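Sequence in, structure out. Go.
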Amino acid sequence: MASSTSFHRWRPHPWHGLGAGARAPRIVDAYIEITPFDPVKYEVDKETGYLRVDRPQRTSSQPPALYGFVPRTYCGERVRALMPESLRGDRDPLDICVFSERSIDRAEVIVPARVVGGLPMLDGGEADDKIVAVLEGDPMWASVADLTDLPPVLVERLRHYFLTYKMVQGSAPASDPPADVQVGRGYGRAHAMAVIEAAMADYEALVKG
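Output:
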């Protein structure tokens, strides 16, 4: 069938066509781009809404949780204000990591995620927060209400992943994280919810021009 119109006009764009969820910011709908143990980094193409291969990972570090973003969020001035050392938001949707006891081995799925905290990531001067959540309804995580309730080793794995996942061939020895990437020790649920609300407000400001 011949047509000059692209298919993505009918397929809801995962960033703009989906929602953050009726119970946000406590429980959000996370759109998943990367599954745990995936050696390739994918990102949603901002124009079409389809997953695009960004790069194979240089190191053996792989995401220890489902990784994606919260639809209809944007890291702009309000998100930047919550990280005073940053120069600006990273101008992307707000990233989220979701722990699930049962293996979810496919991407491009929507996951109900209960927010428990986050990691403050500063990437080249930009605020690039990583919200941390658990799969809503997963009995394994039923008692987890805050980041401090998670096993510390899981949080440390997340920090290590984000310190190394942007390494590129020849940029530095394999043991050295990029000099302009910093990941803090983490914050709790209350601050994470404030970041989500700020990102939702930044998105509304973005689409209203």
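Check: The chain has three helices and twelve strands. The chain has a mean pLDDT of 90.
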